[in-house]
Amino acid sequence: MRRKLAAGNWKMNGLAADLAQIDMLVAALPSCDVDVLICPPTTLLERMSRRATGIFTGAQDCHAATNGAHTGDVSAAMLVDAGASHVILGHSERRADHGETDAAVCAKLLAAWAADLVAVVCVGETQAQYESGETLDVIRRQLAGSIPDGPTSARLVVAYEPVWAIGTGLVPSLAEIGAVHGFIRAELAARFGERTAQGVRLLYGGSVKPGNAAQIFAVADVDGALVGGASLKADDFVPIVTALNAA
Ligand code: 13P
């Protein structure tokens, strides 16, 4: 049985005052039987980790090296030191804004695992790739290039985030989400074996909201969500977690 995971990616949002949202989340969740993860900006990670009782906290990126002359970067060990248990890697915004290649993401996963972080690796096609029917080819390539050998189901989570669905209010059809998630699990099984593949949690991400969460969570092979905008406010995120708990 895969334990469900509701993950929030705060992206470059959040100041100290927004930590109050975490207090509301903690207060609302004691009866939930799903894992909840919030990935705030690095500046809030330690403070959030201290007050997020019962909630996992994670980062949104890490450097591939353990330490050294990399101005502005943060290592996996530093994230653990600040209270992180997870790290999002290969988000499409990092691939687009910072030119992160699959090989770079792969190196970061190894660094994350070496520091005992759970890696939430993101894959997903652009609108042009979607429209030209390349979705599965893109996903296959990103999975092959971004995930190193040796994953375990405990330390790998895969998030399918169609780039065109992020922050747009657009969502693939439920059939499309199911097809891609089934494809991802089959690809993982072919490379890492059925046992590992059956244990890895697959999240859908891209315009998940309180109003569409329950339908998405009913799709086979969807084990949770990676939520951007709707994770910033407890009023939006709690109903999403509740829908996952009921799924
Ligand atoms: P939105 O939920 O704002 O579309 O963002 C999704 C996302 O990119 C999460 O990583």
Number of domains: 1
| Helix and strand run | EHEHEHEHHEHHEHHEHEH
The CATH superfamily name is Aldolase class I
The parts where pLDDT drops under 50 for at least 5 residues are none
How are the strands of the largest sheet arranged? 1-2-3-4-5-6-7-8
Mean pLDDT: 97
**Strand element count:** 8
- Highest-level CATH class: Alpha Beta
Separation, N- and C-terminal Cα atoms: 14 Å
Shape: globular
Bound molecules: 1,3-dihydroxyacetonephosphate
The amount of helix comes to 40-55%
Number of H- or I-type helical stretches? 11
> What is the CA-atom radius of gyration, in angstroms?
17 Å
Biggest sheet descriptor: 8 strands, parallel, barrel
Short description:
The protein is an alpha/beta fold and 247 residues long.
Task: Explain the overall architecture.
- With 247 residues, the protein is α/β, with parallel strands linked by helices.
- It has one domain (5-246): Aldolase class I (TIM Barrel, Alpha-Beta Barrel), CATH 3.20.20.
- It has eleven helices and eight strands.
- It has helices at 20-28, 42-51, 76-81, 92-97, 102-114, 127-131, 135-146, 174-192, 194-199, 213-217, 234-246; strands at 5-9, 35-39, 56-59, 86-89, 118-123, 156-160, 201-205, 224-227.
- The protein has an eight-stranded parallel beta barrel, surrounded by five helices.
- It is globular.
- It starts with a strand and ends with a helix.
- The mean pLDDT is 97.
- 1,3-dihydroxyacetonephosphate (13P) is lined by residues 9, 91, 161, 166-167, 205-208, 226-230.
